[in-house]
Every structure is written in structure tokens, then in C-alpha cells.
Amino acid sequence: MLNQLLVEISKGNTLDINGLADRLATTPGMVKAMLEHLERSGALLNVQTCDGGCQGCGLAAQCQKKNTENRLWEYIIPYSG
Amino acid sequence: MNLDTLHGSKKLDNSATEAKTSRIALVGQPNTGKSTLFNLLTGLNQHVGNWPGKTVEQKQGFFTLGDRKINLIDLPGTYSLTANSPEEIITREFILREEPDVVVAVVSAATLERSLYLVAELIALPTPLVIALNMVDVAEHEGLRVEADVLQAAIGVPVVPITATRAKGISDLLKVVMQTLEGKIISAARLPEIRADHRQALKEVISIISGSVPSPYPTDWAALKLLEGDAEITNMMQSCLPDGKWEAVHDVLREHDDAMLAVASGRYEWVVRMVRAAVARPRPGQISLTERLDRWATHPISGPIILAGVLGIVFWLTFTVGAPLQSWLEEQVVVRLADLTSSAQGSFPAWISSLLVEGVIGGVGSVLTFLPILAIFFAAFGFLEDVGYMARAAFVMDNLMHLMGLHGRSFLPLFLGFGCNVPSVLGTRVIDSRQARFLTILIAPFMPCTARMAVVAFLAPAFFGSYATLVALGLVALSLLVLMLSGIFLNLVIFKGQRSAFIMEMPLYTLPNWRTIGMLVWQRGLSFVQKAGSTILVLSIIVWALSRLPDGNLETSYLAGFGKLVEPIGQYMGLDWRLMVALLASFVAKENAIATLGVVFGNASEATLAQTLATTFSPASGLAFLTASMLFIPCAATVAVIRQETGSWRWTFLNLGLMLFVALVVSSVVYSIANLLVI
């Protein structure tokens, strides 16, 4: 499943976690767990996007809500599988 | 790090050697409630220090269980047992070297997929394991039902559901721990397996290192860690294996350089099986609604259509509700106030009356009449943000940008530009490459910001009446098209087609919080009023002074003189000197375009500014002016930030030159086409 996830990511598209879960026939929680694993192992980079602060950002209201996170990962190592 | 320094030479000072004293280690990922359980069991009877040679906190405590004294060790929160961090090394070395009597793994029922990965590693170790299934209440609240009995049967080790925050299930947990300590529970754990295509490699490594793995490391475990590329175990094995054997191991590892994925993949397959067996997801509510909505909202075809529809509704609402309010304010407040001030002319000098009527009321007053339009605009976007749609809008737009070849890292800051170009330019800090970052800065101001949209919101209904919504949508689409074309160029030249994948975590759709939306409208509205009372007021006065000096006649004023200098450029876009001056004034702040027009046309007091503009200029000129306003050089604040972020005037002027060129060329083309179509 981790391989399938990496294959999907390596296509270089924009993906959302629910869509990935659908494609891998698993839960969004499982996709998140694997993404975090890949991030810890250095295959993905969690991109920090808030250097400019929240002013004008369309995602600011969501970020400030409890229990919601908008996270963006960038795939940074090539995968040959 | 030398593994011996951690536990070998300086073992924990505890009472493990005393009769009937048992040691229990608490293990778990961060935020699973491990510390809550530790505090619950040990109360005040605990010691806090540091692990030897580490800055990682060490906590241990004591409590009594039946006739046993229990030494409870709270191991650092860790996601796995691979040597990625000091916490992970401490945890696994403690379990392997100190050999606690029982390991209690605290897992969160609410994030079982994440928590079980650590369990997949723990069950491969020889220490007896008990799983404390915590946060059962949180999971139930989220619509998840975890069957502890089924999970226990699937994993093959005891699983006890608890809610540590409410001290629920603790006695059951302790009972199972006690039975495990007494040897009454014999676990038969079902271990995860490495992915099938690497099983032979694992066998080979096990056979090579067998008999050479130092105590207390199990051979199978050490072989897996070698395949995972664990730096600590690799160094240890390299130093203890004879050269020939190490070379053999090294050859296997080199042949299987993706073994790390194969090991992790095997564990995740195991986690999937456990979760599938034990978790029931009725979830008829929020999440399935979110998923159903997202099937449309984030779809590659329906997503952009919905986004265009949503933007269309926002503009329609803005023009339908906001524009009449704006006209009413202009007629009832600005025009009347101007009349009132003019009629009181006798009380003070004529130039003061002119300053107040044409400079302040004509300039700032005209801009302030935007307020209803902006309030509706802010409220509509506040609503979309609050219900969670803007994350989908970002996703859909990112997808479009990817299709057009724009690199994902460039998109992130560009998205911020929808609100204001200043954070957009600042947001380019996310781009590592200096060249790519600077080029992204170059195109970032093409993103239509709120201030530009306010100008469109004011002028589009004046020139195009009921077609204002379509025109506004078209102008946004045009700006995005210019941005995308610039992005393609950027991608081809700088990123050279390099791919990047972005994975977004979408928030749930939620009901709007009207207070939050109200606060957002208030804050942004207040910020706009403050801008009107400062920057726009000052510029209005300057424009008024230039339009009166030297002889009080607008046509022979300094402003007209300057405007006529640039008028030849404007003729390609159908803009006379007044519109050119308004366009140039927007450099200070975009809304100044309206303020300047208010000052310049201040004499036509019988009609509102919108009516005056509509009767003075053709729709083709109006469209060209709006196009130029959308693509024209950014405001002074954005230019200052561009200078600050690039540290270069050359890049700053390059940005100004690029935008000026694009604005002039595109507006001229738009004007010519509009004339051909005779609008």
C-alpha cells in the first residue's frame, strides 16, 4: 500500500487525502499515517506556507479552527518502483 | 551514538531487584494519552529527570498492584522503533536492554491507523506486550467503533479499552497487566511480514548475521533493521561482523535499496488488516457528507465548473445587492454632502470648498461608497472560508495550474495573492531556489487582489450593467490566464519540467459561524476605512491640488499636463488623460483609481461618478481600463515588499516593467477586439 501511495504521489499531481484513500481503497486516516511516515523518513516534505502570515490567505479561517489542519506535502525523492 | 552509553553503563536507578517489584514500560506515539495514564497510575509518586546523555525527559514512578510494587517508566513518545530520533533510540534500547517485565503500548482508538504502526514493531520484540486502547470516547464521538476483542484476536496480544482522561477501564488494564506479569496470559502475536518481494533478501541477511548479533538484539529484528537502513544497527553490525560477512550483507542491501519501503509496507499491510478487522465505521454524518461533496467539488472537470459558479454567485451577489447600495450611498450621501458643502461656500474661501467637495468628498467619499460592495464581497469569501470551501478552491486551482505546467511550489504563494499581493510575495519564501523564487515574485502580482476586485466591483456595473458579473468573471479569468502563461514560461525555463506532488488535507465542511464571518467583515472593512482615511485621503488631496494648480482650471492644470504627456500611450487602450492619471494613481493603492476619478469628475455634481463615467467613456474604453487595472503594476506596498524580498532594485524594476508591458499590450488588444465587436 505504501508503494501504491508513492506511485500515486510520484505522478506529480495535486492530490487530496480523501481522494487518495478512495484510490487506495483505504481510510483517510491510513493515508495520513503513511504520509507522516514518509515525511519522517524524508521522502516527503511538509511545506510550511505561512511565512507571510494569515492576512489574505483563503485558508486562514480553517487553520485557526480547532482540530483542523491544512497540510501540504511535497514529494522530494524520486521513486523507481 | 554508542548504544552502550544510553543504558549499558548507567542503568536506571530503580527497585527492580527487590522482591515482587516489577517494571512496566509505557510506550506510545505522541498525543495518545500516555502521560495522562502515567500520571493517573503514579500520582505524585514520580521522579522526573533526563535520560543519561540526553536532553529527553525521563519519567518514572511507583504504585502498588496487589502485593507487587510497580516501577512504571514513561518512555518518550515515539512513532516507530527506527533510529530516526533520540526518543526512538531511547525507547527501543530501554525495551531491549532493560527488559521490562511488561510493555504497555498506549494507542489512540481515534487514530488507530497511525498508532498501530508502533505496535507492529513492538510485537516483534521479546517483551510481553499489553495494548491500552485509549481515547475510545473520542473515537466514538467521531463515529468510529473499535472492537477491542476483535483487535485482540487479530493481533494476538491483550487489548484493553480505556479512557485515561476519565479513569475508565484502568482497573481492567491493571488486571490484564497483573495476569501478564504472573504468566497467566501467553500471547501469540501475529507478526507483520516484509513485502513478499523482499522475503528472500530478509532470509539471506538473517542467515549471514545469525550467530553474530550481539545480545540483547534478536537476530530477525536486527536483520529487519538492516534492511530498513537503521543507522545505529548498521554501524553496530558493521563493527561486529567479520569483513566477509559484512560485505555479503552489504551486497544484499545494495541489491534491495528500496527495502526500507518493503519493511514499512509490510507493517502497513498488517495495520490495514487489523483496522479492517476491528474498526466499524458507520459514519453516516459529517465525513460522508464531506466525501460526497468533495467528489464534485474537487473533481478535475466539475471542480473548476463549480469554482467558476461559486465566483459567479459571489460577483452576482456583490453587484445585485452591493451596487444599488453603493449608488444609493453616492446619491444620498456623497452628492448631498457635496451640495451641502458647496452651498455653505460663503462661510469659507472657495479653494477650501473645492478641496472639500472635489478633493475629500469626491475622492475619499467615492471610495468609501465601496464599503457595501466590499462588505458583501468579504462576507461571501468569509462564508466560503468558514464552511471549508476555500481549501477546495485552492485544490482545484492548484490542479489547473499543474495542468498548465506551473510548479506547485509557485502556486502556494500565488494563492495568497487572492487576498493581497503583499503576503503573496512574502509567501515565496517557501521556494528554495533563489531564481525560481524571484521569478515567482515577478508573476505573483498578476493574481487579482481584493483591492483590484473592488475597482472592478465599482466600475463593472457602471459600464456593463447587468453584464457586470460576466465581465468580472472574464477579468479574473484573464488575470489567471496571464499568470498561467507566465507560469508555463517559468516552469520551462527554471524548473525545467521538474515534477512535484502536493497532497492537501482537506478540512471537513462545517456549518458557518456567523460571528467569525462578522468579525472578518468588520476587521477587513475597518482596515479599508483606515486606508481611506490615510493613504487615499492624502493622495486625493495631492491629486486635487495638481488638478487646481496653477490657475484653477482642470484642463490646464499640472495634472492635465502630466496626463496629456502619457495620453499617447493611453490612446491604444482607448484611455484619455483622465483615465491614464487614474491608472497611474492606483500605484499608491489600487482604490485610488476611483478616488482620482472622483476628484477629476468632481465638478459633475448632478450625476454620480458611475453615471458620469458611463456617459463619458465607451464600454470598450471601460473594459480596457478595467483590464489595465487588473494587470497594471502592483501597489506601492507590494513593490516595497518585492524590493525587500529580492534585495534588488533590478528585479523590482523588472517586475514593474513586465507588468506595465503586459497591462499595456493586453489592454490594447482587449480595446481593439471590443471595438471590433462594437461594444
Brief characterization of the structure:
Chain A is of the alpha+beta class and 81 residues long.
Inertia-based shape of chain A: globular
N-to-C series of helices and strands of chain A: HEHHEHE
The portion of residues assigned to helices of chain A is: 40-55%
What is the 3D shape of chain B?
elongated
Strand order of the largest sheet of chain A: 2-3
Number of strands of chain A: 3
The number of helical runs of chain B is 30
Rg of chain A over CA atoms, rounded to whole Å, is 14 Å
Residue runs with pLDDT of under 50 for 5 or more positions of chain A: none
Structural class of chain A: alpha+beta
Portion in beta strands of chain A: 5-15%
Helix percent band of chain B: 55-70%
Mind explaining what this structure looks like?
The complex is a heterodimer of chains A (81) and B (679). With 81 residues, chain A is an alpha+beta fold. Chain A has a single domain (2-75), classed as Arc Repressor Mutant, subunit A, CATH 1.10.10. Chain A is built from four helices and three strands. In chain A, strands 2-3 form a two-stranded antiparallel ribbon. In chain A, α2 packs across α3 (28-40). By secondary structure, chain B is an alpha/beta fold. Chain B has three domains: 3-181, Rossmann fold; 196-263, Orthogonal Bundle (Helix Hairpins); 303-676, no CATH class. Helices cover 63% and strands 8% of the residues of chain B. Chain B is built from 30 helices and ten strands. In chain B, strands 2-3-4-1-5-6-8 form a seven-stranded mixed beta sheet, sandwiched between helices. A two-stranded antiparallel sheet of chain B has the order 7-9. In chain B, α4 crosses α12 (259-278), α20 (434-443) runs antiparallel to α22 and α29 packs across α30. Chain B is elongated. Mean pLDDT of chain B is 82; it is low at 1-18. At the A-B interface, α1, β1, α2, α3 and α4 of A face α4, α12, α13, α16 and α17 of B. β1 of chain A pairs parallel with β10 of chain B.
